[in-house]
Amino acid sequence: MCPNTLYIPELREMLSCSDEAGLQQFCTALHPAAVADFTNMLEWDEAWKVLIHTDPQTRSEIFSFYELTRQVDFIENLSPQDAAQLVGELPPDDRVDLLEETEPAVVAEFLSLLPENIRRNIFHLQRYDEDTAGSMMTTDFARLQQNTTVKNAISSIASQAEILETVYYLYVVDNQDRLSGVLSARDLVSSIGRPDVVIGDLMDTHVISVDADEDTEEVAEQVAKYDLLAIPVVDKQHRMLGIITHDDVIDVMREQATEETQRIGGVAPLDESYLRASIPRLTWNRGIWLIILFIGALLTAFALEQYRDGPLTTAWLVLFIPLVISSGGNSGSQSATLIISALSAGHITPRDWMRIILRELAQGVLLGVVLGLIGYLAALWLGPDDPQHYIHALTVPITVLLVVIAGTLLGAMLPLIFESIGWDPALMSTPFIAGIIDVVGIVIYMTVAILLISGSPV
To answer: Residues 73, 41: contact at Cβ < 8 Å?
Structure first.
């Protein structure tokens, strides 16, 4: 039994007994993430009856740890007043993400109940395109003027701490609100013995920032490269707009990894979670690739048809068709997966194509020799008792060697080609590569067989 389910009977008993003190203690004694985890096993209305026993801020913190689809279920079923209060307490970036996934009619019901400054902030963030830095930034950040003293800065941060997304970094701006520097909270506290020193003398002027229109993948790369907890977002005039925190970057990277995994598996990425996606949408996203792969399999059948009257009639050759096809497809899929993941991590670029070809060629030869040797022994064992069979059986190792080399090279080069022309390399999914190698493998197999067995008794 999942540990979380052990709390469900207790929660339901407290709800049935209207144990307000127990429910309040449950919501406040545990970390908000743990409360969300435990109540996630309840129906949304039961979970809401638990959450209402705590203050709005704690309730919002717990709510923020639910999956987005779970949050939407809450908002679309709560009263407009409750929905407005809950949404109003969320961080600006999370608030916008939630509203974009909620039915517009539901949003319209409670939007007018939100304070004007929150509505204005929502409209401001919604103008940025999806998958840009502006769409994922929060406007709750610590802002200081260059001429502010250490004493006044500490007082200012202390008064804002509860509403700020993070106070790890304090961003310093000039009179035109342009980003001038950054100061860590640790450096500020360590300067408490010099209360009259101005922030401009303490700040670091070498600030890593991103443009509001920059792609989220680029943002994630910058945060990972410089090991940042948050990164500032600026406009074309370098005016400070907001920050993107590391937890939001992690969410982006997880979403990207999910999309990559789906593409590699031969499924068009879903715009929503699996359970929330409709059956027709799931069928379409899977079916479009299955049709392509099915056509590829038909090409394999057509390739075999061309050799109907050739050495294919030798029974032992037929036995090794699955082996030949799988060795090429598997090696190609491995290469594609390695190259796609390396491209995503920034470890390689299309400019490294020559080094990649040489490395994959070397691996293809080594793997092909090992697999070919095993295949040769199997061909000798399963083949006919014929003096010439020692020569004919070489069809298997030679083919395996050539097919594995072809698979590793094709699996490595196709993603690089896609990347160089601006397409997502993950579109070159491993099932697609395996389908191509199937056809190539059959052609190589039959060609080698004809060359070695031609003219021999069948």
So the answer is: no
- The burial of 284, by beta-carbon neighbours within 10 Å (0-12 exposed, 13-18 middle, 19 or more buried), is given as exposed
- pTM as predicted: 0.60
Is the separation of the CB atoms in 192 and 214 below 8 Å? no
Q: In degrees, to the nearest 5, what angle opens at C-alpha 136 toward C-alphas 133 and 142?
A: 90
Q: Are 317 and 382 in contact (CB under 8 A)?
A: no
CB 40 within 8 A of CB 70: yes
Q: Are 182 and 170 in contact (CB under 8 A)?
A: yes
CA distance 220 to 218: 5
pLDDT, one tens digit per residue, over 154-172 is 888 887 766 776 778 899 9
Residue 169 near residue 209, CB atoms below 8 Å: no
User: 95-119 pLDDT, tens per residue?
Assistant: 988 998 899 999 999 998 999 989 9
Task: Measure CA 128 to chain center.
Answer: 21
Contact 410, 436 (CB under 8 A): yes
Domains with residue ranges and CATH for the chain: 3-132 (1.25.60.10), 143-248 (3.10.580.10), 279-453 (1.10.357.20)
Q: Token digits for 167?
A: 């106070």
